[in-house]
Design brief:
The protein is α/β, with parallel strands linked by helices. 44% of the residues lie in helices and 19% in strands. Its cofactor is Mg(2+).
């Protein structure tokens, strides 16, 4: 049986921190679905289609990564693609409490899907999409935070 995992997020936009987790997760699982979820508590800068395009662009060289979108419960999506695991990235201890709550709820909803936490590389431990957007909005250098295709997309958003 193939090991299939889901790596969820809003990815608005995808950063090197996200890409670190995706790349490492793809080495552990046979298939990795990077799924864009709609976070109702956030107002996105990029449309879902734009986010999917950017993720596909930066993961195109990772053969076992598939990119998708889903509105609904993560465990329902995971079940629909026969995933047996969810990968959640952690930047710092402060992420753990929130992620533990989500994981606990997911376990209640479907106890057959395991959640794996991956710590991002130290160089990305401060990195969030929100910080990247804020720096990009004011013309700061984000070249070490996001792939060039994402940097260009951000520049386009903030100059139009």
């Amino acid at each position: 049986m193939a090991s299939i995992a889901v790596c969820p997020g809003s990815f608005d936009p995808i950063t090197y921190g996200h890409l670190d987790i995706i790349t490492r997760g793809a080495k552990v699982f046979d298939e990795l679905y990077v799924v864009v979820l709609n976070n109702s508590s956030k107002t996105p800068l990029f449309t879902i289609e734009e986010r999917i395009h950017l993720i596909k662009e930066v993961t195109k060289d990772i053969a076992n990564v598939k990119v998708d979108f889903y509105q609904g419960l993560l465990v329902d999506y995971a079940k629909s693609v026969n995933a047996n695991a969810i990968i959640r990235g952690l930047r710092a201890v402060s992420d753990f409490e929130y992620e533990m709550q989500i994981t606990s709820m997911n376990r209640i909803l479907n106890e057959n899907i395991e959640t794996f936490f991956m710590m991002t590389k130290n160089q990305y431990s401060f990195l969030s999409s929100s910080i990247v957007k804020e720096v990009a909005k004011y013309g700061g250098n984000i070249s070490e935070l996001v792939p060039s295709v994402v940097e260009n997309a951000l520049k386009e958003k903030f100059t139009s």
